[in-house]
Amino acid sequence: MKQTRTQNISTRTQTGSAPANGAAALPVRRGRVFGGGSLPKAGVIALLLGLPLGAGLLMAADQPQYRFIAITVPVPSEALGINDSGLVTGAYIDPVTGGWTSFVLKRGELTTGIEIPGATDTILGTANI
Hints:
Blueprint: H1 39-60, E1 77-82, E2 88-93, E3 100-106, E4 109-114
Antiparallel strand pairs: 1-2, 2-3, 3-4
């Protein structure tokens, strides 16, 4: 007696390619992007939102650290520039002449009263030395 083999044919279609070794393909589930339920979706959203924050914290370690100091000039003044070696330049209004006079702070030593002879105002900008 001859044996026959029957197979049910489904009218439902599946997308994707069939495995090359003839193994049965896994069923396709529609409507779920990241697996089951909302918990995995919330985890993916938290991961996506947390990446920029984590990257910012890692980059913050590479940023330079600054130290603020008080420059004691006898009158109100403005610091106008600071260079890489820490030389600070600035200016203030001289209470005697009423003109702008400059100062320099270098390694903690303050030099005031820097003026160009004959000039009404002397204002030093950023020093590039």
